[in-house]
Write a structure and sequence with these properties.
It contains 13 helices and 29 strands. By secondary structure, it is α+β, with helices and mostly antiparallel strands.
């Protein structure tokens, strides 16, 4: 899209529309995206395919309409590993247009599109369908189309990282089926506007399965239809905005129990779905869910989806942060499949999957990236949430030791933030390096009360919104009162780790930063002969003198920096 066209959309069409559209929260986030796109578009690199651009950019065929509501109905044929269904998409018209982009990945196919009860034409270009309306739709109008589709969806190879449908069986040979699709996209199993910048305000899922099985999806179970052909249709309703990859289907012979938690906003309903053979041990093991929500409500504020409840659902893969339907496959072990990712012992104090994936209810589902290039907003905060969980229950030292211990997993292979507009995510360092970046920032701020308020403030400021890295960075900088542009550039957009080079000569310490971006000047605390000193390194050499000959010099390990004696 040409930047001049985007500017025209914002100034001449979209802003007047917002005077009549009551959905101003979404509109505010959308207008911020417009500004961001204008600034960043010309710098987009081109090592990607046309399909990458169609999937990852906000095309002219996407920008003119605003998602309002999905009514998704799917019949899952487990025997043939196929699905058939419809999706009715309700939307507001922002700009008069006739051509709409809908995404659905091969080998699934759209068989029919209807508008106002009549079929309308469509064509396919790879994983994109171009739908043509009979006339330009009226700005401000609420319209809908119904899409029929069918086929055998992509089978997940390594879920959740390489997702799709997982067709498995439990130990009793009962079907055990689930979806997972972050990155790959929800269009791997249902037709949608498959870009993160726009979310429906609510959604209905009607999932038809064999009568002997249960489907668990997002939100509240409204009712179950018992069909004459021996099947059941589960009606699940999400009353909050939801990102596409957060929508899921989980089918098994589940055992279920319900519970409640007295949280910051009142009574939160908790529901747990596990394989029947695991019911007894799950009743004990899943107490980590209660502990998790209490800790995270302290750090981040109220659970963001009280209206939809919280579910923990066993699945045949490791797990995923599906909104209000967190999926679990950590085999009822503490740590990450029984291992401690920090090698400190603290990682075995909790079930990694429950804590990490539940943290995503705040950092992914409440605050959601606009572009997957900014995936650190999800994963860095969720990673650091693990140490905050320990902090809450075992003390600040425990949380610090844990996050510092995870540094051994950092690769520094490529930047955490990836190219925009091509559905490309950055380095996996967004987990451990991102968590250590946030821990370093907390250490620099040196005010735990303010740090907690910043985390809670982010959740309030961007409640149920999609955001850019720039927005999150700016908010944190404003709230801390620190100049953080170089800090975020260093850790998010560069692979080098700041190195404090130093030289000891008698009573003098000579020091400077190396391997840093321009203007990087984060102050540090260090121990000189066992006494705490504050220093303010830059890329230029500085010298300080102390009373006695310097025998030892150690930078506080809570800062993610290297130190190097250059003598």
């Amino acid at each position: 899209m040409r930047p001049i066209y985007v500017f025209f959309v914002l100034q001449r069409v979209y802003l007047p529309f917002m005077k009549t559209n009551q959905n101003r929260q979404k509109g505010k986030a959308f207008s911020l995206w417009i500004t961001f796109l204008c600034l960043s578009h010309l710098s987009l690199a081109q090592p990607f395919t046309h399909q990458d651009s169609l999937r990852g950019s906000i095309t002219t065929e996407r920008v003119w309409w605003d998602l309002n509501y999905y009514d998704l109905a799917i019949d899952v044929d487990i025997e043939h590993k196929s699905i058939k269904g419809t999706n009715t998409i309700y939307f507001f018209v922002i700009i008069p247009q006739q051509r709409m982009q809908i995404d659905l990945q091969e080998p699934l196919v759209i068989t029919q599109v209807t508008f106002k009860g009549k079929e309308i034409p469509f064509t396919r270009e790879g994983n994109v369908y171009w739908i043509t309306f009979p006339y330009p739709l009226t700005s401000g109008a609420r319209e809908s189309i119904t899409i029929r589709y069918e086929g055998k969806p992509i089978v997940a190879v390594r879920p959740p990282w390489d997702g799709g449908f997982t067709w498995a069986s439990d130990e009793q040979e009962n079907p055990f089926v689930a979806t997972s699709c972050q990155g790959l996209g929800a269009s791997v199993w249902w037709p949608c506007k498959d870009h993160m910048y726009d979310e429906p305000d609510s959604m209905l899922m009607r999932i038809t399965v064999p009568a002997s099985l249960t489907d668990v999806s997002n939100g509240r179970l409204r009712h179950i239809d018992y069909l004459p052909d021996g099947k059941k249709t589960y009606h699940w309703f999400v009353s909050n905005p939801i990102n596409n990859y957060g929508v899921n289907v989980n089918i098994a012979k589940y055992a279920h129990w319900a519970d409640t938690l007295h949280g910051e906003k009142g009574i939160l309903d908790l529901d747990f779905y596990v394989l029947e053979d695991n019911y007894d041990k799950a009743r004990t093991h899943f107490q980590d869910a209660h502990r998790t929500i209490r800790a995270f409500e302290y750090w981040f504020g109220p659970y963001p989806f009280y209206e939809d409840g919280y579910k923990l659902v066993e699945v045949p893969y490791l797990g995923m942060e599906h909104q209000s339907s967190v999926t679990y496959g950590n085999k009822y072990k503490m740590g990450y499949l029984g291992t401690d990712v920090s090698s400190t012992g603290w990682g075995l104090k909790f079930d990694f999957l429950i804590i990490h994936e539940s943290a995503h209810e705040w950092w992914a589902n409440n605050i959601t990236y606009k572009d997957i290039a900014d995936m650190w907003i999800h994963e860095s905060f969720a990673n650091y949430a693990e140490s905050l969980f320990l902090d809450y229950y075992y003390g600040k030292k425990a949380g610090s030791e844990y996050v510092i211990g995870t540094r051994a997993n950092i690769r520094n292979d490529k930047p955490i933030i990836a190219p925009y507009h091509v559905n490309q995510k950055g380095s996996g360092d967004m987990y451990y390096k991102g968590g250590n970046m946030l821990h370093t920032l907390r250490t620099w701020l040196n005010d735990d009360i303010k740090w907690r308020e910043i985390l809670r403030g982010l959740q309030r400021a961007f409640y149920h919104q999609t955001v850019t890295s720039e927005q999150v960075e700016s908010f944190i900088a404003e709230q801390t009162g620190l100049e953080l542009k170089a800090f975020f550039n260093q850790y998010l957009r560069d692979i080098r780790i700041p190195t404090l080079e130093y030289e000891l000569k008698g009573k003098r310490l000579k020091y400077r930063y190396a391997n840093v971006v321009d203007q990087f000047d984060m102050p540090l605390e260090a121990m000189i002969n066992g006494k705490v000193f504050s220093i303010s390194p830059t890329a230029e050499w500085q010298t300080i003198s102390v009373d006695n000959s310097i025998k030892t010099f150690v930078v506080d390990e809570n800062y993610y920096v290297f130190q190097k004696n250059i003598k």
